[in-house]
Amino acid sequence: MSLIKCEGLVKKYGNMTALSDFSIEIPEGRIIGILGPNGSGKTTFIKSLCGILRPEAGTIRIDGKEVGIESKKVVSYLPERPYFSSAVRVKDTLDFFEDFYGDFDRKTALHMLSTLQIDLKSKIGSLSKGTREKLQLVLVMSRKAKVYLLDEPMGGVDPAARDFILKTILTNYSEDASVLLSTHLISDVEKVLDDVVFIKRGRLALHKSVDEIRMEEKKSVDTLFREVFAC
Amino acid sequence: MEWKFTDDIPIYQQIMNMLKQEIASGELAPGQKLPSVRELALEAKVNPNTMQKALAELEREGLLYSQRTAGRFVAEQQGIQDGLQEELMMEYVEGFLEKMKKLGYSVDEVIALLQRYEGKGEE
Amino acid sequence: MLRKLIHYDSKVQIRFLCGVYAVEALLAVLSGIFLGLKNQFPDVVIFVLMSGFARAICVLSVVVVFVGTIIYVVAYFRRNLLRDEGYLMHTLPVSPLQLYGSKLLTGTVFVYLSVFVGYLCFGIGNLRFRYSVLEEILKDTADRKTFLLMVITFLVVVPLLLCQFYSSLVLGYTWKMHSANPVNRDLLSVLAYIITYMVQQALAFVGLFGYFVIRFGNPLESGFLERVASLAGKGVSVQKEMVSYVQGILWVSLTLSVICGAVLFALSVYQLNRNLNLE
Which of B7, B10, B47 sits opposite A31 (nearest CB)? Predict the structure, then answer.
């Protein structure tokens, strides 16, 4: 049984179609890149999986469950946005995650935060944008979830931070869980991915492993991406 | 160990090549214990499944062996290392001669070039 | 989970409110002090002036805090559930019913708290707690019933009012877009509030008219004017009529409001479930 199974997803915003008859199956233990230009439907797809967007048609099963309270217990989502208010302290965010998520591992989080030298007592508002993003990543990855959804974690972040993100994903790797990471900075990320999914205008354009692409097309995913999505 | 990857071949093959070089040169000694898949993947910044695939292939080729709880080790037989050196040497030579042929040199011209190069080095 | 949400919402909102209450209390104490000084030394001009000024500020602060609490609580709802923080809240393993419910419960409690703190500050600022009126009302049974009804109405009005604001925000923010153009969702919420308000007023009118007809019979039948005129007459029995009529109106209004509130609540939760679309 696949970890994530979507069939016939349709999502429209007025007369614009974000997802059109989108179907995909994702097994456990994979790190998957969701690639596509802006507006292709990547974020819509990810948001549908976490339950903050409901598609007009189609079904989603996460670990066999429908999207709802039970699925949210096993899905860990990192949005592009900052989602804590500035007045909150770092320590409070740990308490919050621990309170609401049974799978949160405080020790892992504390360890990562000390590596990043983030003071627990500091207020979110006093942290730089990059540090705030790293904090959110730490919180999300410190959960022992089955599905990790990272929406553009690398956008606007310096190379050292990108390295940290990839390292965290690799360290956290588990055979029972899968990581879905949407990005357009493919060359950085390619070595870390098992499979890639290309979404073009709301449809599934490609779903292959990185190895397959290199062997069949004799090019990197980055190069193939440029070809598939050429303007 | 320097992990450098190129775009055109699958990563697991590149990992295999790099590890073969290390074994052939002796940097990875016979019988030496390898770090875990996870540790190697983290070090090389690659997907753990990819690393696993590379190591499994090397195991299949007899260059590595694994013991259930102890982990993975470099093969002990001396013959393996020599065989690998031979294999890699042939690969490099073939690759080199290909490139030289493309430039328009015959094998004899290449030999002369090499002698000249070595002579220069002695001066 | 609901308890955890309530705990979290309380913690955040109380931090702000405590600061506000502290200032309000300070102003009340100052007012009280100046009033005391004025009473002790009625000839000192400065005390008279300051007392008047301080008392005015104190009363103003009570009103501002009350209104401000409602505004803050509604703004917190919007910030926490419909803006960036919504990305966190709506991905928690809780239902929208619990999210909304927690805000409604904590918001209501904090508005009551503001009323209570306001009452205390008003008393301190004026150096007198007015409960003599209360005593008089409680002496008479009929008046007591009406008073009870008014208390119930007050208790219910607060959550209903918050429900209206919260629901208008939700309806505005979950309105399905028919074009890809960005729209100001706060404006949509204001529009939603206006529409739901008008609908409720219309329903109230219909409801009260219906009650009126039940009480006094068909307006087109004979004897109608006499029945209405009987209310204006003098005498104890007529007074009782009047009181029961007023009570009736209050009951009808109350019931209608509660029904409208419940409908808005259910509609909002449904919308949060089905049509949430955070920016």
Answer: B47
Q: How far is CA C96 from CA A211, C75, C196, C267, C275, in A?
A: 43, 18, 21, 11, 12
Assess B56–A contact: CB distance below 8 Å, yes or no. Answer: no
Q: Is B42 on the interface with A (CB under 8 A)?
A: yes
Residue numbers in B near A163 (CB within 8 A): 45
CB contact under 8 A, C93 and A14: no
CB count within 10 Å of CB C83 equals 16
User: Domain map of chain C by residue range?
Assistant: 1-130, 141-279
Helix (H, G, I), strand (E, B) or coil at A157: coil
B22-73: per-residue pLDDT in tens? 888 888 888 888 999 989 999 998 999 999 999 999 999 888 888 888 888 8
Query: Which residues in chain A have their CB less than 8 angstroms from residue C86's CB?
Result: 52, 83
Q: Please report where in the chains the tokens 């799978």 appear, as a residue.
A: A103
Q: What is the pLDDT of residues A39-84, one digit of tens each?
A: 888 999 999 999 999 999 999 999 999 999 999 999 999 998 888 9
What does DSSP assign to residue B33?
Answer: B
Domain ranges of chain B: 11-76, 79-122
Q: What is the CATH number for A113?
A: 3.40.50.300
A170/B45 touch (CB, cutoff 8 Å), yes or no: yes
Give the ipTM.
Answer: 0.92
Q: Which domain holds residue A78?
A: 4-228
User: Which fold, B11-76?
Assistant: Arc Repressor Mutant, subunit A (1.10.10)
